[in-house]
Amino acid sequence: MHDGVTVSYDDVLRWIQTFAATMAEQRQYLTRLDSAIGDADHGINMDRGMQAALAKVDGLADGDIGALLKTVGMALVSTVGGAGGPLYGTLFLQMGMATTNKSELGPDDWRAALDAGLQGVQMRGKAEPGDKTMVDALTPARDALSAAVADGASFDEALRRSAAAAEDGMQATIPLVARKGRASYLGERSAGHQDPGATSSYLLLRTAADTWGGAAAPTDKEES
Ligand code: ADP
Ligand code: MG
């Protein structure tokens, strides 16, 4: 985010690349979380899907952020089975629909994209907040982003607040009893474990904040 106000196509591409790298790095961690309440494949699924997405976006060069995000979504839908792949695929596809023909995104565009993505996930998976799924990280992230945009916060600040809200939402899945997905088969035994999909969704928002906002603490001097 060179000007602090918008993210460019290249910024969005860097976010996708960084998220793919993060999924590769966190593959075992996510799979370990999924082994407790699922079938021990969430890290494998996300890593495989994002590697496939990277291969597809490499050839794109048209500067359309919507096309980029839709390409990621289609790669995930077509390469990852189970629940996670189609749900993440829908998230990116709907984000892409919301950003069609855009070459840069401001905070409100990003809010609209995340909102559309979350709505797509809920349309497809029928999960509500509190069901112990990725929706529990994405919903507070979307809400914190909306509130930050309404407050007139800077894009950096809005991104940081949305990542922090996603982290809280992820942690709040620990005591929950799962009502959707494989973890729901465990009933009460699903309580006491952090949801893998909420964890990867937190990492998605954290990666956006780190890639676009920069990891630097805010300073009071202007930088260009
Ligand atoms: P699978 O459950 O098919 O093995 P993954 O392990 O890749 O797929 O993904 C599991 C994650 O998917 C869960 O941790 C949860 O966050 C998410 N998930 C599962 N079902 C749903 C649903 N109906 N709505 C939203 N998210 C869901
Ligand atoms: Mg699984």
What is the total number of structural domains?
1
> What is the helix/strand order?
EHHHHHEHHHH
Report the top-level CATH class: Mainly Alpha
CATH architecture: Alpha Horseshoe
Q: What oligomeric state is this?
A: single chain
Strand content: under 5%
* Anisotropy-based shape: globular
Radius of gyration equals: 17 Å
Q: What's the average pLDDT?
A: 93
- Please give the share of residues in helix: 55-70%
Q: Report the structural category.
A: mainly alpha
Ligands present: adenosine-5'-diphosphate, magnesium ion
Give the strand order of the largest sheet, numbering strands 1, 2, ... along the chain: 1-2
Q: Can you give keywords for this protein?
A:
mainly alpha, two-stranded antiparallel sheet, Serine Threonine Protein Phosphatase 5, Tetratricopeptide repeat, disordered C terminus, 2 strands, 224 residues, binds magnesium ion, binds adenosine-5'-diphosphate
Write the layout of secondary structure elements.
Blueprint: E1 7-8, H1 9-25, H2 27-37, H3 42-57, H4 65-79, H5 84-98, E2 104-105, H6 107-125, H7 135-151, H8 155-171, H9 196-213
Antiparallel strand pairs: 1-2
Helix pairs in contact: 1-2, 1-3, 1-9, 2-3, 2-9, 3-4, 4-5, 5-6, 6-7, 7-8, 7-9, 8-9
Bound molecules: adenosine-5'-diphosphate and magnesium ion (MG).
